[in-house]
Specification:
Length: 502
């Protein structure tokens, strides 16, 4: 099923090296929305307890007087040992058959690939040795989480961070034991680790450090309005997930149904939350168009894996298109995109279902996905429309597609799409040139397409997953904090869901 990765497959859509690659440069609008709607999470920060641990470590550094470059080594050694303890406790608890998975979420523990073999080999974890190996980054996961911890006011994000205004020392004392255990020389046996399960990533929800992290997300602190944003996005998430099946539905699809396609949303969420829901609506709908471009590009270049000309790639791309005009296929042929009350209809989901049933997208399906986005422009309220269009002018947005459909309406579909495909090759080349940089190895062109004489070759495979709006990671953090919960089958509001009512 890897070929079908997208909104329904909410884990990392592409291989790590592909995640940051944006050959058509159409993705920025989604990243901007993600940062605006969920500022306190990035896709690589799924574990709430690391936020607490790093804040606790910042307090520790302050207490020990570690402030300058000379102290950095000692500080990082402590960070690494503490992260190994947290990771080892979590891996052990995850394999204990306890109800860990109900509260920890679906993301693996940090360092699991080093910790698990160690446990398998000797039924114990030697903290110092694993600490040397579990992460190639000097500061361990502190570097990954630092930006988020700054946003949340837990630390100042420094290399030896200072505690931030949200770092409540009394609450964070719940993690004192992680630090003391981490400095023990004796290896931690499976039994030792089992006895520390209250320190697992899944146990933060009702622990004092969980209160600290929830406060960091949700309680206003002066001029920053991130807390209100987090409360609102979390409130929508709880509404979107409640009653949904855990395994069947992806979080993005649930959020789509709630924010984009739910009749009577205003009454359901109230006037206070409604404008925020509409921004989500614009972002979620736009992400389908962005995904369409990514699918189109990946399909267009795929024949070049075995070296060929651009003309050959374009001919292959349009080969199975129907004998119709652009108007027939992509304008008159589209279903309605709103109901009689003006609520968007889930046309994107219908197209996606078709692709799932057929085991892959057809080129016509991808083009229709784009055309639906263009059609929506005329049918959105102003708040949604602004979010949908975004603030970038040259990103193949819905206006670009509208203009293309208008211009080429009466042309045969295959001809018009051939020209569009040629324009995409030009665009990708110019995007790549703009990102070109000198490195110590010479001039580096960030592209997978290489010219070989008058022919081209694709090295590797272009990413074709949807761009992340960070919802899976946000859900994981909220689940660990007890804001959303599930019983293995169905989502429901968590014990602490009342803290996110805006
Ligand atoms: Zn656990």
């Amino acid at each position: 099923m890897t070929a079908m990765q997208g909104p329904a497959w909410t884990l990392k859509p592409d291989t790590p090296e592909d995640t940051g690659r944006q050959p058509l440069a159409v993705e920025t609008v989604i990243g901007t929305h993600a940062a605006g709607l969920i500022p306190g999470v990035i896709t690589t920060t799924p574990h709430a307890r690391y936020l607490a641990l790093h804040a606790r470590l910042a307090i520790e550094a302050q207490r020990r007087g570690w402030t300058n470059k000379a102290d950095l080594g000692q500080f990082r050694a402590l960070v690494r040992r503490a992260e190994v303890v947290l990771g080892a406790v979590s891996v052990t608890h995850g394999e204990s058959g306890d109800d860990h998975h109900l509260r920890a979420g679906s993301f693996g523990s940090h360092g699991v690939n080093t910790i698990r073999p160690e446990l398998d080999r000797q039924r114990a974890v030697e903290v110092g040795r694993v600490a040397d190996a579990y992460s190639r980054v000097p500061g361990g996961y502190l570097q990954t989480y630092a930006g988020i911890e700054t946003v949340l006011g837990l630390t100042d994000g420094g290399r030896i961070p200072l505690p931030g205004p949200a770092a409540d020392a009394d609450q964070l004392a719940a993690l004192d034991e992680v630090l003391s255990v981490s400095e023990r020389e004796k290896p931690l046996s499976v039994a030792d680790l089992g006895a520390l399960r209250h320190l697992c990533v899944c146990a933060i929800g009702d622990a004092p450090d969980g209160t600290c992290v929830r406060n960091a997300y949700f309680v206003d602190r002066g001029h920053l309005d991130y807390a209100r944003t987090h409360r609102r996005s979390a409130a929508l998430l709880v509404g979107a997930l409640t009653g949904e099946q855990v395994e069947v539905e992806s979080i993005d699809m649930s959020m789509d149904r709630w924010c984009c396609f739910r009749p009577g949303l205003l009454e359901l969420v109230g006037e206070d939350l409604h404008p925020h829901a509409l921004v989500w609506r614009g972002a979620l709908l736009r992400n389908w168009s962005v995904w369409a471009w990514r699918l189109i590009w990946a399909r267009l270049v795929s024949p070049l894996s075995s070296t060929g000309t651009l003309e050959q790639a374009i001919a292959e791309f349009v080969r199975a298109l129907p004998d119709a005009t652009v108007r027939e296929a992509l304008i008159d042929g589209l279903p309605p995109v709103i109901d009689h009350a003006g609520t968007p209809l889930p046309v994107e989901h219908d197209l996606y279902e078709e692709a799932l049933d057929a085991d892959d997208w057809t080129v016509l399906g991808m083009l229709r996905l784009l055309a639906v986005g263009a059609r929506r422009l005329d049918h959105l309220d102003p708040v949604t429309r602004d979010a949908f269009v975004g603030t970038f002018s040259d990103d193949l947005g819905p206006g670009y597609v509208v203009a293309w459909l208008d211009r080429d309406a009466e042309r045969p579909l295959a001809d018009a799409v051939s020209d569009l495909a040629a324009a995409l090759f030009h665009r990708a080349e110019s995007v790549s040139r703009q990102k070109m940089q000198w490195t110590r190895y010479g001039l580096r062109l960030p592209t997978r397409l290489r010219r070989v004489g008058d022919r081209w070759r694709l090295e590797g495979r272009e990413g074709r997953g949807a761009v992340s709006l960070r919802l899976p990671t946000f859900t994981n953090v909220m689940q660990q904090l007890g804001v959303v919960a599930h019983d293995g089958g169905t989502w429901r509001p968590g014990r602490h869901a009342t803290e996110v009512k805006s």
